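Support request, please re-run this one:
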Amino acid sequence: MPPSTDTEELVQKVSLYNQKPVLLHGYAGPFIVLYAVWLFMWGSWIQNQPVLAEGDLDVNEGGSLPGTPTDNGTMGEEDVLKRSVPNDGTLEAGFIGLAVIGVLQTLVYLFCHWSVHVRAFLTCTKVKVSQAVWV
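Re-run finished. Output below.
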């Protein structure tokens, strides 16, 4: 049977691509940078938050402020928690941000498996015709 010239062929166009290194793939490299920027921002945000709220400066029964050692030199569990963990939602916001980045990365990775065009765009560079010709 002679070759068909119809436009309804399975292969209509062929392009050459070179694969990028894994860290430069669109589902890996940009997200590494995004995770690093988010963790840096979250860490600096937590460091700049006040640890005690305004109402936490009440005097305890023993006459000491919360977060300071009691008369026997020890700190209670509640005092340690008030002193070490910010209570304004910064931890939850940070974890929500990490979850959103993770979901986006998962979707991008799945789109690479669902679509050849997305995979070629995110993982390869197109070869020019002059580069593809070898003598």
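Strands lie at 17-19, 124-126. The helical segments are 29-47, 77-84, 90-114, 116-123, 129-132.
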